[in-house]
Amino acid sequence: MLSLSGFIIVLFARLVSGGPCDNIVNVTSSWPGGHTTALLIPIKTPITNWTMIISFSSALTSLQVWSAASTSTNNIQFQLTNLSYNGVYSAGAILSGVGFNAYFNSSANPVPTVSSILFNGVNICSTVVSSSTTSKPVTTTTARLLSTATTAKPMATTTSSTGLPTKYNYREVITKSLLFYYAQRSGRLPVNDNPIAYRSDSALKDVGQNAEDLTGGYYDAGDHLKLGFPLASAMTIAAWSIIDYPIGYSSAGQLTTAQNMVKWASDYLIKAHVQTNKFYGQVGDGTLDHNYWGRPEDMTMSRPAYFISTTNPGSDLAGETAAALAATSMVFASVNSTYSALCLTHAKQLYDFAKQYQAKYSQSMPQAAAFYPSSDFGDELAWSAAWLYRATNNVTYLNDAKAFYTQFGLSNNPSEFSWDSKTAGVQVLMAKLTNDTLYKTATKTFCDSKVNQPKTPKGLLFISTWGSLRHAANIAFVCLQAADLNINPLAYRKLAQQQIHYALGDTGRSFVVGFGVNPPVKPHHESSSCPNRPAVCDWSTYSSTTPNPQTLYGALVGGPDSNDIYTDDRSNYVTNEVACDYNAGFQGSVAALQSLAVQGVFN
Predict the structure, then answer these.
(1) Are residue 580 and residue 473 in the same domain, yes or no?
(2) Do both 154 and 183 map to the same domain?
(3) What span is annotated as the signal peptide, if there is one (predicted)?
(4) Domain finish residue from 151, 168, 185
(5) Domain count for the chain
(6) Is position 603 within any domain?
(7) CATH number, domain at 520?
(8) N or C: lower Cβ tally within 10 Å for the chain?
(9) Kind and range of the H or E run holding 95
């Protein structure tokens, strides 16, 4: 039986459709004053470029488009053109992945509908697509959002690709989370692949001690430091989610975008590995960087680089980077075998470096200790060995992982899974690789303790004030992995979904910038706080009480305290900063939930 909420969705979908373009237009979610629409365009003859002119039955207030460039002649007619990667199609293909949020006056009656679509000059709305046609999502999609777009406020319920109900639009969350990583990119940005209008080339003079090229990578958080340890950790988790939940990404049309997001980091990590036993783990001086507020493109301060070596080793940093590159090699194994092999070569060398020269990187690189001090390195040794075993199937690495697991007491019940503490990840990954009761029991103990842990009044699994949502999302990801092993699957998936839904809006507000109801508008993030050029961006911008001029789509903010109290305040970096590692477990969990929804396993 269709639930009341499901009936309302179907009814509203009929209200916003019912036009001549129903065969092309697929309304995936709706709310008073707007709807999200995906387009399915049948390709009749081979094309190398396309332009579509979309006309609506009445005026919109704005149109937010992804996977296309967009211009408008008025509020009724909008022109979309292909981006560099999605213009070529053969006859018989379906162009999918292009879509938009349409916004209009909430009192409009009837609501605006698509009245015609001219595709390369031909009105395709009169062409009926056979119901037997299967849409194959285009996996190479980059969400290009209009800089003037209004924040989407999707209705609380949408549908998965199978038509099963999901409370939030996971596909939109995945797409926007990937946009956040675009906003964090450092170095020279591709002209044809930069959907963030306010970002351009930056930090092009980042070099090492011997003038090694260290350009590229991601800025860590709201500042402009490049920090290898949390970056590698974030990319290991991101790559893990792509390996295990590709359907989650592909059903959102974002698989290739996700792969390229990881590659932007791995390209940099490979650059930073300048010698077999020398790896640059930080670019930028924390004091100098934090004394500046402005665009990364305008930085003029000194940006020294710091490294580990045989005389100043860092097993945690080298090991985590080895894990990230081993996981990335698996992401690209069937996509680009040459690049996959390159990642694996560096992973093996870094693992050997971590194993042979054992020490904490934050002791060898004291500059890093002020930001991401390491508590130990044994978990990273076991973690990297396990990932190399998964990537190579070489039992030597498995034996190492088992030995490190015992040596460093990793059977204990950790309090978190984070950039610093990999123990919970080691436990569930080893359970997956070996099916051994030892690791499965440890994983069960960890997730059971989180299920049973008292939550905040509104339901947050609270671990730490700093980045509270990040911690909850990371635990959600581990327990989703445990559920895949059939360890208390219903309880663990319910826990994970509750934590992710808390972030998406279950408390009455979203904690993801540019998504859902009442999202944060003043994240502690320098570049998005800056107005468009030529306006000045400095500490007066930081002190402003107005929303950030740029929308940092998809960024998960730190989050509320143990009493669910949260203030959207740019100056509060504990609750309102964003970071690469904040989004990694969050995005991975959403991809897992989307994958489960598509398969009809759990909604």
Answers:
(1) yes
(2) no
(3) 1-18
(4) 168
(5) 2
(6) no
(7) 1.50.10.10
(8) N
(9) strand 94-95
* Mean pLDDT per 10-residue segment, the chain (603 residues): 36 46 75 77 88 91 79 86 75 75 83 90 66 33 32 43 69 97 98 93 97 98 98 98 95 94 98 98 96 97 98 98 98 95 98 98 93 96 98 97 98 96 98 96 98 98 96 98 96 98 97 97 98 96 96 98 96 96 98 92 74
- Copy the structure tokens of residue 89: 């199609």
Residue 127 contacts by C-beta under 8 Å, 6 or more apart in sequence? 23, 42, 44
Give the pLDDT score at 166.
Answer: 77
Whole-number Cα distances in Å, 509 to 72, 92, 168, 195, 461? 32, 43, 13, 26, 17
Nearest to 291 by CA among 538, 21, 541: 538
Check whether residue 161 and residue 179 sit in a common domain. no
Encoded tokens for 1 = 């039986």
Q: Which range of residues forms the domain containing residue 145?
A: 4-168
Indicate if the alpha-carbon torsion angle 159, 164, 168, 172 is positive or negative: negative
Catalytic option among 416, 420, 568, 581: 568
Token reading at 446: 């960890």
Q: Which two tokens stand for residue 419?
A: 């950039």
- For 127-159, the DSSP string reads SPPPTTPPP---S-------TTPPPP---S-EE
* Cα atoms in the 13 Å half-sphere on the side-chain side of 9: 23
Domain boundary among 134, 168, 202: 168
Active site residue 577: yes
568 is catalytic: yes
Q: What's residue 85's pLDDT? A: 56
334 close to 239: Cβ distance less than 8 angstroms: no
- One domain for residues 391 and 303: yes
